[in-house]
Amino acid sequence: MADIDGSILDRLFAVIASRRGGDPELSYTAKLFEKGTPRIAQKLGEEAVETVIAAVKGDSGLVGESADLLYHLLVLWADAGIAPSEVWLALEARMGTSGIAEKKSRRGN
User: What is the value of pTM for the model shown?
Assistant: First the structure.
């Protein structure tokens, strides 16, 4: 197995961001940007459902579906002007905090 870490998501995000304004006839990513946020969000939802289905079925396709899900999430972030580092910081801030406590803090409970 290749020695790959989470930085692949940062590198992929850079490629995705570079496709904004590209030729939609040559780039699927450029085509998604051209269609706008609603289509990008729809594709993310479709990939999320496909990932869930693969997981429930115990399907070997879970890895591929997970990759598709992450790709479409990165496209949505790029569309919204969110850098991966913003999400990484939010995750870092939550490290060591109980998920239950963190959810309660967001609800103001």
Answer: 0.85
